[in-house]
Specification:
six-stranded antiparallel sheet; alpha+beta; 2 domains; 23 strands; homotetramer; Rossmann fold
């Protein structure tokens, strides 16, 4: 996952972009960057780590200009060196090309081979650099035709923002895997992965960029073109954005995430009603489903796990000693609430199962009499080729364990998953989601070579 | 406020102390330090900023020894230079004296004058250094007598931990303003400001140190003595710890904070029941009272404000530009929930009123139809001399404004405070609290000179 | 100017390369880099500032491998950003290409235009990057033919070392403007700008790389090829290396620099014998000519100016206040030696004249009765297009001032320059030097566009 | 050794003090500090490492005030932690006391015991802190009497500058072990360890502070008092300052160091004339004696060893690998000069012998036919208690080796030391020097306890 932002036509574009990074920090904690353009000069700032920690005002102030794009990185391809921080920025024939990309391409190998054979030198190990070389190689007379020729060559998941000549460009792949929203701030337009970024900037949500759409923004004018041949193509929005990844205050895929998650909890309560003293959620994403679950059943909702707001750098790369304490330091169950009680614990999803097991262990040590766990999505069994960084297939606990075996592994008294139909039934865009991580049915051809490795464990 | 930790008899004492800092980070974000002692050598680590960010494993590993004390600082006296980071550590006659202190002394001026006239040189501007000089000046044959002679000379609020010769010492002033808890980990004892620190360390809560008690821990032995002449003295626990400062998963002053806050909300609902579509709390400390309020009245509870977990350094000393966006970046109301709704907003307290006004403005901009605000304590009107860093009296909005005027200032449709009696009635240690910030009735003599300045605005 | 090093076939190649940077630090203080290769992986370290300060052992240790190239930078083209630190390193078709270059190309503009039109994206603003793109564009079956095709396209001054597949390559332009020496260390070969690097490494000096020669070193085998069509071409060694730039302990252009400079001083004494109490040189490069001058005339030689070995970073970008003191802090005349004395001051060259004026002023303030200045080269009047970073032509004091006017400007009692013939007569390779900075007669076509700008002031 | 500076009555006192540190950097490379005072506020800057590298303009600019003292540290007592950087600065009864000290006290243990028993807490492990506590303990009505009472209690070597109330104070012990010079800059006075500091500041040398003298400078007024009872006491200037430590452009102990060292070389030539092809000195301190030696005998003087001006941080704490190369990287003999020659090598002194052996080995590897070494002082056999940081006595090669054995160890063809009488005969203050490191005859009582340890190996 990654977060992307684009700002046009604002006298402090880089500061607005920085507010966008603040809002989208959850989409990538590894590194971040901003590129600004003032009509003649381009400025860039890139840092490892959290943008909110490492970008200071003095540096942002140097990013002058009325246009900016920004990126916050969660590595899926490319190693974690400085050069692999986006936006990617090059100067070609004295013009700036800058790219920020969220998603994963699926025909990467073919494009690498072709470009290098023609003499292109890749400077990063990110698939996103392919956009830059295609832009440099493709004749660039007419802007819409240039962009259509470029995007027609790439396959897979991409929501992307570009600084190109004097234009801000936004584009979304024909399946629409990743979100991309359009906002308005004063005279200018904003592009952002999630609408919560507009709230931060005090900008207005306009609409989502359509799958297959390219918007070209120049000054206060917006032109929209579509990739030809994709009209009516089936869409494949990432359901995991709704379940876990996006912020609860965002509106994407035509829905509000907080409300979607409460509805998942309500549906879970209908499918799996459990009798208990109270309902609690694993902070933060489990809280909303827990609230929906409790309200649906009329059970008390308690915030019986305290989240520590100070999870600092020390725990980012901890030794074994600190790792042993990590779960508890991050989330501490309140003994005075839990002792002797029968509880329903709501979690958004289970990936490896190890984290859930640790959390359940903590709740058990706090004195819970019975622990019933309800998950607000089905079992995750298959890898994602579109940008979610799941572990290798063999590490997905549900890949070759039954629900009963998973329950035994994480040591709960009972375990319930939401059904696939139940999950999709509460989404507004019901039929338009990719559920491949639950079903293994991929909406596009998947990359050659990688499939065996990933699919057969 | 500050947080203090002491560890005895653990082979990785500094790591345990560091876990304590993690748990107590909320008690002081300005700086932190750890002193360890291995029987022959003393090691120290001090850093500005958050311990959780700035203390790395390599540095902590160098703090060898089976004993350690630690401190996290929230400046109340002393400027913010490196030398004003605790624990204070000196070597005197080849013995280590190390001190970590939470609270404020009230006879500071008298003690400074006496000590300097006798040739003592103060190295810091913290009142806590007085303990060190008193220890160096006082004949130190018998440990309990030595400590009683030292503590008998200081007045005011102090919970303190010391490394002294081969002992870990903990002491609490006779009124018991600040909490200090005793835990057990393996063979050894732990001291910590709040019991949540024991959860982090997987230590067991034993009891609270009594007001006026001094505990001397050597190896796995604990000796307890009391300051003479204070038996039956009235106690003055800080009620603001319960309302706002302590962590919800802590047990101090004989109560669990989460439950206290829920009871404050329930009592608030009884005193001031409001009809509305739902109840929401200002994260985090307002959430618990909001839950109590909603459950008492049977109203829906919604988490309609999202707290951003990434409030980084950039916003710590922001420019005007970023300051304008600060409230919203930190706490974002969910428009899809609030639009057109009548809401009850629960806040733990109002100090200056400016923060509340900003938050209410944000909720209003998210589309709330009616906003009714309920505060889970009475109006704060007077300064604290015991360690809570309120602004100058004139800046306390309730000091010379009526409730109606405060409501107008923060622009709510209605505003209700919990009564003093209501507040105290839900505490387990009802009669033992200091409520001076609400009433102006101080339980001790207050410092000369400062009273006029602070009290008359 | 820049310094370059190449190491083949040594188990700690990067450490050997680092010793080379130590020896060649005087050739570039702005930045430095090392690239190592261990047969499968490539490692790189680049830092602004002095290599000797900023490269620490821990970092060098990570540069594993038996081959390495290194570069120390003195900017002549390209701005001073991190990306403009050499060696330039790219991965192309999974192979490493690394380049370190000393000199300036003269057909840069033509090559830039051609390459960008074909889609190449330049990542730096250094002309040296051209080598990389030519290497990527040119079919690379047979190594010698590949390299000859690449080097045949570039014109101007270059001594260059490359890491290419499993080979270390060294090449020198057909005129041989810049030095490049071949050494032997154990089984392997070393390439370095100056032979003093071999002393540091305890390597053996073998010979200089010939003008127009390309050496391809694989393991312990060396193959030599020559650019066709340049046999018998006239050479153009940079005489300024001998006068000022190279280290006195180096042997380049078939001569030892210390001895060349002493001979320049002896010749100066023959051309311009001055009667005085003693002879002193401006440290360090003036000292050797001063010693030759004094020995030739039988005058006492005194080291009457003390060079401060601690010219730290503070003076690198000083304020006006510190700048006022800079000359004296760097070089302090000894009053007790100079007071009331008539002195001959030997300087290697005069560029702007401002430095010499300051130094003479210092000597005058130390009490000198008479100051006679002798310069061990002719007046510098023209710009260099081959890598010496002279100021713009108008700033060269001798460009439009007579010797008398220069003497007046720097305020000496008399001023003497060595003659062109005298200078060349003491060189072993008499007829093979470029003297364009004295005569304006350039041995190659100079770059279009830049000539007017630079030549007409 | 250490260097100290004091500045009074200059509007940019800290910058002037910084220039003094530049000049005195050779007296201590370990750490440095500046304290300034502007009549009401005191500012301080302390850094590990070289002042010239680590003090930048921005930081110096913050040191406002018309008075300043500064110190550059070469550790002799006290470990190398930040707190052991001078000037020592405390605030006592709201007044600043700041101290910078060069030398070693000899009654340290007695003073420590007395002060701690009275309750003083030492913050550093430097004997210099004793001055601070004595100042705080001693009634301070009349400034001269106060200072006389303080200095009367300490014994040993001290040149010291103080900031005290509104005065700059300088004092030198009655034997005058360490130099301390008085200069004038505009209306104000300067104090500095060596007169070369005045050259840097463009200040005028006035005179040396007398042994046993205390100068109290207030504004542009200077008052001088003497410690009673020391009139006519025999002096004990450190001869090692003349031989090795001081800068050649300094005038201390009533002599110019460059000329003293040339005279040592001349005297050495008279005592030990050697026939050889030429004379060379080990840079830098050996060069001056070499020049005197060569001139006396009419032999050619050659600078046949090149000193690398870039000995950076990497070599400060090198690994074994770099250590093996250290000597050569620092000082490289010129093979083309030395090969096949018979040479006289002049060195200022031999301490352990290991450095000389390495250097001789390098000269031998450069091809020298014969190497004759002459040392411009007698054999060093005893420890120094007055501030020179010799190794333990057993490590002094001359402590229990004959001249012949030393010659064998360092592998020279012949070795000659200057005689004690010869050395002292060329000093202007002949009878006033301490020669204890050559003779073991100490001019004061030496510290108890330490003598056995140090003297018996």
């Amino acid at each position: 996952m990654c977060g992307i932002v684009g700002v046009s036509h604002h006298k402090e574009a880089s500061k607005i972009a920085f507010l966008g990074l603040y809002a989208l920090q959850h989409r990538g904690e590894e590194a971040a960057g901003i590129v600004s353009y003032n009509g003649s000069e381009t400025h860039v700032l890139k840092k490892s780590g959290l943008a909110v920690d490492n970008f200071d005002e003095d540096n942002i102030r140097k990013l002058t200009g009325h246009m900016a794009i920004a990126h916050t990185r969660y590595s899926t391809t490319g190693s974690s060196t400085t050069k692999n921080i986006q936006p990617i920025l090059v100067t070609h024939r004295k013009k700036t090309i800058a790219v920020a990309h969220n998603g994963n391409l699926t025909n990467t190998e073919e494009l690498y081979a072709k470009l290098e054979n023609e003499g292109s030198i890749f400077q990063t190990s990110m698939d996103s650099e392919i956009f830059v070389h295609l832009l440099a190689k493709t004749p660039n007379g007419d802007m819409p035709q240039w962009l259509i020729k470029v995007f027609a060559q790439v396959k897979g998941a991409y929501s992307v923002v570009l600084l190109l000549k004097d234009c801000l460009v936004g584009a979304r792949d024909p399946q629409g895997f990743r979100p991309l929203c359009l906002g308005k701030l004063g005279d200018g337009y904003i592009l952002a992965s999630e609408s919560c970024a507009f709230d931060m900037m005090k900008a207005e949500f306009v609409r989502e960029i359509e799958p297959g759409e390219i918007v070209i923004i120049k000054g206060n004018k917006l032109e929209s073109v579509f990739l030809p041949g994709f009209v009516g193509e089936s869409r494949a929005f990432c359901v995991f954005e709704n379940i876990y990844f996006a912020r609860p205050d965002s509106r994407i895929f035509n829905d509000n995430i907080y409300q979607v998650r409460k509805r998942l909890g309500e549906r879970l309560a209908i499918e799996h009603p459990v009798k208990a003293d109270f309902v609690m959620g694993i902070p933060d994403s489990g809280l909303y489903a827990a609230l929906g679950y409790a309200q649906q059943l009329g059970l008390p909702f308690e915030m019986a796990i305290v989240r520590n707001h100070y999870i600092g750098r020390t725990f980012i790369q901890p030794s074994q000693f600190l790792r042993d304490f990590r779960v508890r330091v991050k989330l501490n169950p309140i003994q005075d609430m839990i002792k002797g009680k029968s509880v329903v614990v709501i979690e958004d999803s289970i990936v490896r199962g190890t984290t859930s097991r640790s959390r359940i262990e903590e709740i058990r040590e706090a004195g819970a009499k019975e622990i019933h766990m309800c998950i607000s999505c089905p079992p995750i069994k298959f890898p994602c080729f579109y940008g979610i960084d799941f572990p290798s297939t063999g590490e997905l606990i549900a890949h070759n364990k039954t629900v009963k075996e998973v329950a035994d592994f994480i040591k709960v008294d009972s375990l319930y998953y939401l059904s696939l139909e139940g999950m999709l039934s509460v989404m507004k865009e019901k039929g338009n989601f990719c559920s491949a991580c639950f079903t293994g049915k991929y909406p596009t051809q998947i990359p050659k070579n990688t499939d065996k490795l990933k699919l057969e464990i």
